[in-house]
Specification:
208 residues, Glutaredoxin, 10% strand, 4 strands
Length: 208
C-alpha cells in the first residue's frame, strides 16, 4: 500500500476525544471504496502531571480546572450523540494511566502490524465502554489474548518496560512535529485536530 493510502493519527487512550475521533474515522472508512491504513503515533496526555519517576502526580497543576472538565464533558456528550457512540461511558477515567497500554500497543504495531488495529480498538473499548483499567497488565494481557496475541508476551513487554524508552522517544517526536493535543490527524502535509466529523476527514484526505 502506498503512503498516499495512509492517514497518521496521534492519540492517547485516556483521551475521550481520541475514542470519538476513532468513531469518526471508522465512519469515514465505511464510506470509502478502498481501505485507508492508519499509522498510529502515541501521545502522552498526562505529560504535565508525570513526575521524574514516570508516575502520575494527580495533585500537579496542569491548568485544567473543573470548569475545563465540565466544558469537555459537554463536548463529549454532544459528539457521543453525533457519532452514535452509544456504548461510551461518560466517566473520564482521570485516574487511569495509559503508559503501559501505549507501550504494549507500540510493541504490537512493530511486531504484529496486521493485528495492531484490532488490539488498538480493544484497548479503547475496554476503557471507554467497559470501564476497565488499561493501566493494569492483567487487563492488557486479556485484551491481547482476545485478539489472538500471546498474553505472556505482552506481560513481558509491560513488566520489563521493554518498550517504554521507545515510547518516550515517540512522545518527544510528536512534540517536535508540533502536535500539542490529541487526536491529531495528518495526511500529506495537512492536519486536523480534534474529534472532527467524517466529512472533515474526507476533505483532509480527498480534498473534497
Amino acid at each position: 500500500m502506498s503512503d498516499a493510502d495512509e492517514i497518521t493519527v496521534y492519540s492517547d487512550y485516556v483521551c475521550p476525544f481520541c475514542y470519538l475521533g476513532r468513531h469518526s474515522l471508522s465512519q469515514y472508512q465505511d464510506e470509502r471504496d478502498e481501505e485507508l491504513a492508519v499509522e498510529w503515533h502515541p501521545f502522552d496526555l498526562r505529560a504535565q502531571k508525570r513526575g521524574p519517576d514516570g508516575e502520575i502526580d494527580h495533585d500537579a497543576d496542569d491548568g485544567k480546572d473543573e470548569e475545563y472538565f465540565e466544558q469537555a464533558r459537554e463536548n463529549v456528550e454532544r459528539l457521543r450523540e453525533e457519532y452514535g457512540a452509544d456504548d461510551m461511558e461518560m466517566d473520564f477515567s482521570r485516574d487511569v494511566d495509559s503508559l503501559d497500554a501505549q507501550a504494549a500497543s507500540l510493541y504490537v504495531s512493530d511486531r504484529y502490524p496486521e493485528q495492531w488495529l484490532e488490539f488498538d480498538v480493544a484497548i479503547f473499548e475496554a476503557l471507554w465502554e467497559e470501564q476497565r483499567d488499561i493501566g493494569d497488565v492483567d487487563v492488557l494481557a486479556d485484551l491481547a489474548e482476545d485478539v489472538g496475541l500471546d498474553p505472556e508476551e505482552i506481560r513481558e513487554v509491560v513488566e520489563t518496560e521493554q518498550y517504554h524508552d521507545e515510547l518516550r522517544q515517540k512522545f518527544r517526536e510528536a512534540q517536535e512535529h508540533g502536535v500539542t493535543g490529541v487526536p491529531t490527524f495528518a495526511y500529506d502535509g495537512y492536519g486536523a485536530r480534534g474529534a472532527v466529523p467524517p466529512s472533515q476527514l474526507r476533505r483532509l484526505v480527498e480534498g473534497t
